[in-house]
Amino acid sequence: MNLDLLPQDCIAHILSFASAREACRLSIVSEMMHSMVDSDVVWEKFLPFDCKKVLLRLDSPIVYATKKELYFKLCCPHLVDGGKKIFYIDKETGKKCYILGARELQIQWSNNPLYWSWNRQPFLKSRFEEVAELRTIWWLEIKGSINTKLLSSKTLYFAYLLVKFADRAYGLNTHPSQATIQLNTAVTSKRKVYLHKQREYKNQIIFGGDNDHEIDEDNDDSWIEIELGEFYVHDSGDSIVEMCLKEVESQHLRGGLVVEGIQLRPKLKL
Q: How far apart are CA 199 and CA 63, in angstroms?
């Protein structure tokens, strides 16, 4: 069948069932398909339904000529809400992703300079203006929360604590921390994780059991991802998801943990 014979609105409807990546591949099928793939009608469907609200929240405005250009620019991280969060679109799925900066988190005792310091050193290569560095404390508790209406509906999200370890880091891996995800009042995920700075542990299981956990560090500049758990967003309703890393049972001192934030994104396909 010659697709060029189909009405444009029919082709646009067909493309609406494809992903952004699939639509780009379909552009080579015919001249008509190529023309439609570049049209605003098609790319409007790939953008978040609340895209206009998202654009208003950006710290720096985006200049774009087409909806396709806007889509791919939103696939790059952008500071929003006064620099407290980062927003971007997952290029593979088109789903909304966020990073909650350390200033957006509830870090126990972080307002006391005896226990935590707020670091602006450029060598840390953070995407935020500040990160939190643990001086010394025995009560470790880091929480983050977000309204699910800011996320994509019908999507399984995973939460990751983004950290680095100072050279002086100590006492972080002698006892497992408890990682939990709570949607409203229901706990959706619960696991134990160790915090470890040794690079030889890259891509290795460091906690045995049903909820084994991996850490990964690609290079010296990267932030290590500690998987906190998962949750499913059914719709764009007004619900609160809370993520928490906590260790208070051992009551021993620890320090040297550097926290950039908590990342929320769909699970990456292997």
A: 41
- The confidence score (pLDDT) of residue 177 equals 94
What DSSP character marks residue 148?
G
CA 117 to chain centre: 24
Collapsing DSSP to helix, strand or coil, 218 comes out as coil
**Closest to 269 measured CA to CA, from 153, 156, 189:** 156
Q: Where are the beta strands (DSSP E) in the chain?
A: 78-80, 85-89, 96-101, 106-107, 116-119, 131-134, 140-147, 155-170, 177-183, 186-193, 224-233, 240-247, 255-266
pLDDT digits (tens, 9 = 90+) for 99-136: 999 999 999 999 999 999 998 877 788 999 999 999 99
pLDDT in tens, 132-173: 999 999 999 999 999 999 999 999 999 999 999 999 899 998
Strands, sheet with 177-183, edge to edge from the N-terminal-most edge strand: 106-107, 140-147, 240-247, 177-183, 186-193
Amino acid at 38: D
> Which of 221, 216, 141, 231 shows the shortest CA–CA distance to 184?
231
pLDDT level of residue 31 (50, 70, 90 thresholds): low
Distance between CA atoms of residues 101 and 126, nearest Å: 10
d(CA 219, CA 175) in angstroms, rounded, equals 26
